[in-house]
Specification:
The chain is an all-alpha fold. It contains 9 helices and no strands. The protein starts with 9 loop residues before the first helix and ends with a helix.
Length: 167
C-alpha cells in the first residue's frame, strides 16, 4: 500500500496494522511499516501511536514506548487512558511494577485520569509480581474515590492472597 500511487488514509493503515498485531503478533513488522509510513510523509494519528507503544511494550523495549509517548505530545495530541494503560501494562509485563506505580503517580499529578481498566491492570501487575500488600493498598486507595472498583480487581487480589496462602 505504501508503494501504490492512490492515497491511502491513516485510518486504513491503522486498521491494517491493528489487524496484523491482533492476528499474528508481528510487532516488529508493524513497527517497520509504521516507520515507512512516516518516512513517506504520513503523519500518524493517536491510534497508530498507541499501536506502536503496545508493540514496543510487547518487545520489552519500554524506552522506545516512552519515546512514542513523548512524540504524542510533540505532535500535539494528548495521551488517552488507553495510551497510559498500555504503558502501565508494559511496565508490569516487563517486571517494572515500581516504575508502573511511579508512572501512575506522575500522570495523576499531571491531571490525567485513569479508569477501571487502568487500575485493574496496575493491581494485576502488582499481584503477578507478588506485591499483594501494595495491590491491597491500591485497592483501598481507589475504592469509592478515584474509580469504581469491580469484581475483576477483587478477584485478582483474592487469587493472589490464595496463592500466598493468606486465605
Amino acid at each position: 500500500m505504501l508503494r501504490m500511487r492512490h492515497t491511502t488514509t491513516i485510518v486504513e493503515f491503522t486498521r491494517i496494522l491493528s489487524s496484523i498485531v491482533k492476528t499474528k503478533n508481528h510487532y516488529t513488522t508493524v513497527l517497520s511499516l509504521s516507520r515507512q509510513m512516516e518516512f513517506n510523509g504520513i503523519i500518524p494519528d493517536l491510534l497508530m501511536l498507541n499501536i506502536s507503544i503496545n508493540c514496543y511494550c510487547h518487545l520489552h523495549q519500554m524506552n522506545f514506548a516512552f519515546s512514542v509517548n513523548t512524540k504524542i505530545f510533540k505532535i500535539g495530541y494528548l495521551p488517552t487512558t488507553v495510551t497510559l494503560t498500555t504503558l502501565i501494562n508494559g511496565l508490569c509485563l516487563n517486571g517494572k511494577v515500581q516504575e508502573a506505580l511511579n508512572f501512575h503517580d506522575h500522570v495523576i499529578a499531571r491531571g490525567f485520569r485513569l479508569n477501571e481498566v487502568s487500575y485493574g491492570t496496575l493491581i494485576n501487575g502488582l499481584c503477578k509480581m507478588g506485591e499483594t500488600r501494595a495491590a491491597l493498598q491500591m485497592l483501598k486507595r481507589i475504592e469509592g474515590k478515584l474509580v469504581d472498583t469491580n469484581v475483576v480487581m477483587y478477584s485478582t487480589v483474592i487469587d493472589r492472597l490464595c496463592k500466598d496462602k493468606c486465605v
